[in-house]
Specification:
alpha/beta, Spore Coat Polysaccharide Biosynthesis Protein SpsA, Chain A, four-stranded mixed β-sheet, 10 helices
């Protein structure tokens, strides 16, 4: 059950948190998901059998959760799939147990999806990085994300100039279902990147012109400890979905073609779409 008083005109959002022995950060993660009472959140925590006090933290917040468990699983993406299989909301995203959202993230995302039914998935233009204490220590700017740029390798980890930040990416359930309805277990490190490849086959990605979330840098993440393996796996996924480096002519075409930015209009207190 939830202690929030949501604005029922906004769509509900399903958030899954895969968790394993991140008790030092888990409470901040849960709190960030429930920071805005205007949004109805269906939040599930799927813990892999933590032994560091994480379960006690989850139990303390159980009244906010739609469901939770603590049991052995086959890793992060298995946990995410297990959680999403139990969700019902029309908007979806996941947040790992050591990352966090900005306080306004979910209300902005809900408003954008409500205002623009043609938008199928979104990410931020300004991805954040948090430190161990949860302070924002870096905010970078993305120029744009296009389908052509993705399949030409412009956003490949280790090669590209812009990465799609998983912590700030949300999508409609209808897109998730059309793209297969689960994360692919053949990509245990780069399952997020492989999912983006499937999404791009169906819909363009829209950037929102405000920070939504961030990755916490504390040095003990798989994406850091196994960086080279993540990069190799992402490129394997990219090639499997038709990615190829451009020929000499295509190489010099604009990278940002067909990129869409969602920007707030202070005159109308709403969001507008623009091409960048």
């Amino acid at each position: 059950m939830s202690d929030r008083t949501p604005n029922l005109s906004l769509p509900k959002i399903s958030i899954v948190t895969p968790s394993f022995n991140q008790a030092a950060f888990l409470e901040q993660t849960i709190t960030s998901i429930h920071a805005d009472p205007s949004v109805e959140v269906e939040h599930l925590v799927v813990d892999g059998g933590s032994t560091d006090g994480s379960v006690e933290i989850i139990q303390r917040h159980a009244h906010r959760l739609a469901w939770w468990c603590s049991e052995p699983d086959r890793g992060q993406y298995d946990a995410v799939n297990k959680g999403f299989a139990r969700t019902t909301a029309p908007i979806m995203g996941w947040l790992n147990s050591d990352d966090q959202y900005t306080p306004w993230a979910l209300s902005v995302v809900a408003q954008v999806f409500s205002q623009f039914p043609e938008v199928e998935w979104v990410t931020t233009r300004y991805p954040l990085r948090w430190d161990r204490l949860g302070r924002a220590i870096r905010c970078s700017r993305r120029n744009g994300f296009s389908r052509r740029g993705f399949f030409h390798g412009h956003y490949l980890p280790g090669r590209g100039d812009s990465l799609i930040q998983q912590e700030s990416t949300f999508w409609r359930r209808s897109l998730w279902d059309r793209a297969g309805g689960k994360l692919n277990p053949d990509y245990p490190l780069a399952g997020d990147f492989e999912l983006w490849a499937r999404f791009f086959a169906h819909a363009d990605l829209v950037m929102i012109d405000t920070p939504l979330g961030g990755f916490r840098a504390h040095g003990n993440q798989r994406s850091v400890l196994q960086r080279d393996n993540y990069v190799a796996e992402a490129e394997r996924a990219w090639r499997a979905h038709g990615g190829a480096f451009p020929n000499l002519i295509a190489k010099y075409l604009p990278r940002r073609a067909n990129s869409t930015l969602c920007r707030f209009d202070g005159n109308t207190d709403g969001w507008v779409l623009a091409t960048v």
